[in-house]
Amino acid sequence: MGYPEHLHAALEQLQEHLLQSWELSLHELRQENESLRQEIAQQYEENLQLQALRAELTALESERTAQLESRKHEAEKLRELEQQTGKMSQLESELQELRAAHQEAQEKEAEILRQLDVVKQQLEAEAAQSSRLTLEIVDLKLAHEKEILRLRGLADGPLKLNLPDLVDEDKQADPHQELQRLAYQDLNTGLPNLNLARRYLSVELSKTEKVTVALAILRLEGWSEIQVLLPDQEMQQQLLGQFSQRVRVCLRAEDVLASGAEGEFWAIFPLASGGPLGLKSATELAQRSLTKVLESLKSPFNLNDHKLLLNLWGGLAVGQGQVEVEALVRQARLAHQSAVSKGSNRLALFQPELERPAKRRETIEPLLRQALNREQFSLRFLPVVELSSGQIKGVEALVRWEHPTEGILEPAQFLDTACASGVIVALGEWVMSCVCEMSRDFRSLYWFINLSHPELMQADLARRLTRSMEAAQLNRPDYIVVECQEKDLAKPDARVAANLKEFRHWKIGLAVDDFAFAELPLKGLDKRGIGFLKISPKITQDLDQPAVRNLVKGGLIAAEAAGARVVLKGIENQGQLDLALELGCPWGQGHRLSGPLSWPELEERLKSRQTCL
After folding, report:
1. 561: which of 109, 132, 202, 453 lies 20 to 30 Å off by Cα?
2. 180 pLDDT exceeds 80?
3. Spatial distance between the Cα atoms of 259 and 479, rounded to a whole number of angstroms
4. 191, 260 contact by CB (below 8 A)
């Protein structure tokens, strides 16, 4: 069926119109699409430009930051330079002051030297004018036998000065001669003092090798205690006079006896013989005389109503031909120290090996003084163990020195030098501070700190320890225990006794270290404030002997009665541990239980509650 003509024309017209309209819309869409494409391209270009700008901005910011850091660094350098400039100015000022002081000191020194020259000339003139002030004064020899007997104290009457009188009794005393007498005479004994003895040694040793000289340094044992026992100065002088008379009788007429402070005497034995035979003869002569001196001391000294027995130590050294005086004195002192280490009433002859520890001390002392500032010291901790359970009840702080070339050194290798040099005081204070700080987290343990004799002699020892405890905020001072040697507690001098009293006042614990039942009585431990008896390892080594076990049993009973705990040191094997348990000893130390631990090792054991059995 076909459409009418007019409809067919209308449809074609409509179709044509729609086609035109579609073409127009398509053209507009193409234009819009092109416009949109151009806009997107423009935005893309702008985005690229923006990214480039951002990158440039980041680079600029980095450059600015670097510039700021550089300026800051330059500012710091400038400040340091200004400070250094200020210090340089200060140093220049101090240098000028030092130069002025040095100039003034040089002028004073020159003036003193001029004055000394004047005094020397006066003394030389007076010596030349005096018929009695001859070389015999220095040599301590008299021309005739009568004066020797009188001046050596061998004649009847009071003890005389052991050298020619510097003042003629028939003439009026000269003040200069009286001063010279006082300079060379010990006022307590009337003997020559050590200054004159040195002069005599110098003259004898400056002679040819045909002369041999033996020097013995004698020291009365416990002289400080004797002074306390005899507070009267006159009685002390009387005792020294009687002692010097006994010694004098044991010497030859040509031998010299001189006295110094603190109960020290020098005996000088000249022998007109050289070579090896001379050395041997002088040594034998001096040893025979000194043995007589020891024999004479077996009889007590009578002082009014007092009877005293004296002990002494003697060190002997022999010199020959051009030997330095101080070298001979040093050798005699080393021998004396060797005699002291061997017990009472001992004599020791100098041997070259005695100088090795001294040379060792001279080597390590400078490094030891620097070690504390360089933080070369560290601590190890030796547990104190309850033997029945194996639990750690306390720890003993042990010092180690991390030597720059010799590695880890134990106290036995440097402690004597630390005590002799005084470093022990600063080192001990460092140990106190470390122990108090470490004990804060384990306040139920006893912390043991060893104290040497030089530390116990410090007047402010107790206060320094309490300051360390206050800094660590410790409220149980009795858990800090100071360990002292038996000899320091048995007969403490005034300064040690004052520190022990301070420990009791502050309720600080006190332990007897290396107790050997030798000097300290077991009675009255509580009155002395002693809370711990740490029995010496030497006793532990002999526990298999019945007598030693009985001795330890008595110590356990006495300690229990006084409220003190006993710690058996040196438990090294199972046999010693079994004997300690059998005796009922409560606590112990030793490698069978535990060796020294580092701080991390100790912390781990304490936190894990690990036992030592």
Report:
1. 453
2. no
3. 48
4. no
